[in-house]
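Hey, I'm writing a tutorial for new members on how sequence and structure tokens pair up, and I'd like a real worked example in the thread rather than a made-up one. If someone can provide the structure for the chain below, I'll link this post from the tutorial.
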Amino acid sequence: MRPQMNLVIDIGNTYSKYYYFDGDELVSHGKQAGHALSFIPIPDPCENVIISSVVNLTPADERWLQSLPYPVVRFSATTPIPITNAYRTPQSLGADRLAAAIGAWTLHPGKPLLIIDAGSCITFDFVTADGEYLGGNISPGLHARLRAIDDYFPRLPRVEAEGDTPDLGYDTQTAIRSGVILGLKHEIEGYITYFKAKYPQLLVFLTGGDEINFEDTIKSGIFADQFLVPRGLNSVLKHLNKPQTTQQ
């Protein structure tokens, strides 16, 4: 049987992104600034579409979706998923966090998983070896921390992330940059060390836009994958379209 071609759409605060999967294989992807959908190419054949969005779609985008000759799934807290969601307030859970957790579980089921998304915020999410999403924590991201220093301490300069990052800052610029970047690095390493002590079989998935260089002592079991969210959404489509077994 030929694998189904799925279209995954992920609309964030800054970009609209699309991904085409042939079964489990990501075959093409693209993005565009803003929230418009009309730039997305439609292949033939395409069996199913799933969309996850942090913004309300415009009337034009709604018409574009409705014009597609394929079933469209709108990913939400009520969408059936291939793992158990134990979050107490599922309606408030970010769709990207849940999708990334599903994506990690799809790649390595049967293992305890820590998913770290180093983006605008740093999110830490945990899935048990039994496939139960327990929840996670949210912390300010790299650029948010740098902006916060500038916003709250007017006597301190605005510092960019790019530049020298010594162990100890030798001037105010490097003191701020090293304090933020190394502090963020040690925070992430602390989470990994803590969960590895509790779950020796733990696997760690790192996704998001900010690259983190880890100490050699904790690199084992860390997987970098920038496509965890679309992989998770594609897995949801496969879960929704798997053949149903009937009881005899």
